[in-house]
Amino acid sequence: MQGHPLDNFIFTVGSTNRQGHSRLHTLSEFLTLPDSIVTRHQDAKPIPIGRRYTFGRLRDAVKEELGDAGKGFEFIVPNAAQGEARFKVHDQASLSRTGGQKPEPGKAHGHTCSSKSEAQGGPTTGIYIPETTEPDGPPWVHTTTPREDRGKAAAEAVIATEDDDEDTDGILGFLRRKNLIKGDKVRALAWTFNIDNADTMDMDTTWKVPGMLSEATISQCGFVYELGLRLREETSMQGIYNADGVGCGKTFTTFMLLVLRRLASLTSQHLKEHPDEHIWSVENGGRCAFTQSIGIQCVCEKNSILEVLLDRLPNSYSVVTAPIAVASVWEDHYIDFIEPVFTGANFPFRGEPVLHAYNWHDKTSLRPLGQSPHLSLASFMVEPILPRMSKSNARRVHKDAPARSRWTVDELGEALENGPNATQVSFRPHHAFTPQHSMSLIIVGRERLSLYASSTGTPDSDVVECWVKTAGKPARAVEVAKCFLLDPSVIICDEAQEYKGKDSKIAKALLGLWQRKERLQQAAPFAVFLSATPAIKDLSDLEMASSIINRQQGRHAKVMAALRLADRHSNERNSPSYIDAIRAACRAVDMWMISRAGYSPMLDQGCRISALHPPPETIAKAFDTPQELRRALGETIDKVRGGMVEHNVRVDPAAFEHVMMSVKGADLMLKAGSVPGLQACVTADSNFPYSMGRVEEDIQAYNDMRRRRDSAYFQKLDLLTRNDPMFVAMANIVSQASQGKVASKPHHQVSSSPLHVILFTQHPCNAAAAYIYLRENCGRRADVVCLLSDTKPAARAEKLGELRRSSQGRRVDKGDKSIIVITTFRLGGFGLNDFVFCNLMIQLGEPQTQAGLIQAIGRVARRGQTKKTFRFYLKREGSESEELLRIRNERRTGVCHEQLGQMRLFQGLTLH
């Protein structure tokens, strides 16, 4: 925020509920101080709220002074000319009111407030209050419901007054600037969730979700409401894409959706068995009496969200698939937020199970979570009933049936049904399938699900021989694999930005669920895609999600046509053609994608959703490539360019990695971009380990004291880091952190405990260089840990838990060390990697995509972070590979061809 009237004020907070108690505070870093202010910043306690001054954040920052009962506080601003200036702040409106107040000698304008206004000037107030020039403008004050102690919250939202520093252009910017819940929708939302007074509903309002241990924010309720509304309006929509920002509680919201689907099923059954309890009356506000009992609009009421979920989500179990490192997040959320049974003295379904959950942890078995009953994996599968087929009784199939010798059971069914005799393959539920299965969630890693869906991965025991015949050809035997017999009601794809490429195994597996014939007369499953960064490289990343969600009525082709048009014009920013194309793309995704972030408006009266923690303050440091390495790096670039010219390739810089995979030297060029010393090491030793898993082996050797001297990175550490001031700066950041200081921020409050650091970089070889350098140079001041792919997800989560616990209670005056965790954007930048014990982040070089950086920042600036966060951006100048990534990531969907065409790397090549 620039030019805010509270910038650089040093002030005390006089608690309204603890008379006589005050402490000096500050909102800024003392960059510029007015002469009229008495400066005592050495004694000031900073409030770590970044650049967004909101009542909620100020209140939370001074909670120690206010106590649990405090609802407001008083600023007492020391002023050399006037003595002091006072003003009280009790809500967001009165804080906003201070935005027009300036200490000005000789002027003390009084202001008569309404009975609701609480921006009050004290008797010694020397404050100038400008007259409003808009007589019909909005009032200064709006009433809000005071925050109450609501226990553990899944996420928190406050009223915000400024936009976050997030990208607000393109499709996500369009979606996140929209106010989905305003006007009449506010009352409809309150009616749906049985909230008494829509007029007092604000961003602090929460709703108790039946069957869950935490309350939902009004923002999460808004997502579910908006989904129900869209499903009612668009009956062909097969799913939804939740693209809310990092840390907005997408996993919790999805669990909430599953629990409400379960509640809808129970309520529907109750309506059939006890219709007399579903009576509408004036006493009940003109609605069903059962609504009061369950806390949400009953299925019998018009436009009930429960009725929509009951109608659109088939009555069966759900499956969530995610990268294996993220699967544990779903297990943790289930344990933390789902009650084993519905509770509440008067709740009508008290004692009924809420939701069972299972981890599909090996090929053939499930591990129950919490108090879920033991159920076999096989019991969730449907059983195909194949017609009798022998050589003498071969079945006629369609002429376009697969020519290969092994088919899936679905391919056999399609070939038979489209054949001359229209024979069908039928299915039946497993004999052990019970209602317990229908209320279950199976958590499975993406890789395991892909393997299970493949006919080649099917065990021989599930393969049968069938005889088929096509017109004019002899009968032949084919192997039919009984694979992918799942029949879920909901498929949840977490980290959906990874689910792209129609030819990938996971894409084929998921698309198969919708392309095959319906089984057991059940509709196709409902898809939920989750990602804060849905388009990593360009808008075509949304193709797979759209192909499922919009598969009916030819909608998918229209969506992709609009997205591809926007991509083609992406390098024409601000041109009329680009603006028209991006607007068409926004309209194409508007119905099936919902995205909100910290600056998104919601409700009325200027309310906005807030991120759970302000984004980190960025401290950028640029470093030139060492002079003695520039020639060798230039020769590598020439070699890569020569390889591309030789292959006569047309290069799309937005997806250049695919071209360079087969070009000799490209791998080294990219990896030496941020750590140019790698070039020197490879020049000196052609076997220097910088790829193919050899980096992890080298670090293992270094960590073993008996083999440390076998580590190539240890042997060549001097050559790797010679004349590179970036490593010196990195060590200084760590050294300062061990003393409780933030490097380059001399006026930031010194912490009594050492500060902990997470370092992200793109490649394991860069992580190894940073790890061994810091271990050798800062080992006395910091515990340095490197987590790469050789540490499995479960072990990584366990190690992070140990580090988090170890970080507590460390003190500078006792000589305790900082903790430095080093990992890659790919491994540490998604899921629920628990880095909130770190408030300093080092970005070593450029990430492969902008999404990687956004995700990484979200691991630090998120719920649970208690300190102001800082991001040290160590930027490498003079490196074409780094500059290429910077340009591409800044433009997101397009690249500035004019800049790239001047690069040494692309001379003589055609860019498109």
Low-confidence stretches: 1-11, 14-24, 26-44, 46-53, 96-168
Q: Hey, roughly how much beta strand do the residues contain? A: 15-25%
CATH class term of the domain at 617-911: Alpha Beta
Question: Gyration radius, to the nearest Å?
Answer: 31 Å
Q: Under CATH, the topology of the domain at 617-911 is which?
A: Rossmann fold
Second-tier CATH architecture of the domain at 617-911:
3-Layer(aba) Sandwich
How confident overall, as mean pLDDT?
A: 79
Query: What structural class should be given to the helix and strand makeup?
Result: alpha/beta
Shape: globular
- Helix-residue proportion: 25-40%
In DSSP terms, counting alpha (H) and pi (I) runs of 4 or more, how many helices?
31
Largest sheet properties: 8 strands, mixed
Rounded to the nearest angstrom, the distance between the terminal CA atoms is 39 Å
Please identify the oligomeric state. single chain
Instruction: Going across the biggest sheet, name each strand in turn.
Output: 15-14-20-13-23-24-10-25
Could you describe the 3D structure shown?
By secondary structure, the chain is of the alpha/beta class. Among the domains are: 119 residues, no CATH class; 221 residues, no CATH class; 295 residues, Rossmann fold (3-Layer(aba) Sandwich). 33% of the residues lie in helices and 15% in strands. It contains 31 helices and 33 strands. An 8-stranded mixed sheet has the order 15-14-20-13-23-24-10-25, sandwiched between helices. Strands 26-32-31-28-30-29 form a 6-stranded parallel sheet, with helices on both faces. The protein has a 5-stranded mixed sheet with strand order 3-2-1-4-5. The chain is globular, with a radius of gyration of 31 Å. The N terminus is likely disordered. This is Helicase C-terminal domain-containing protein. InterPro entries: P-loop_NTPase.
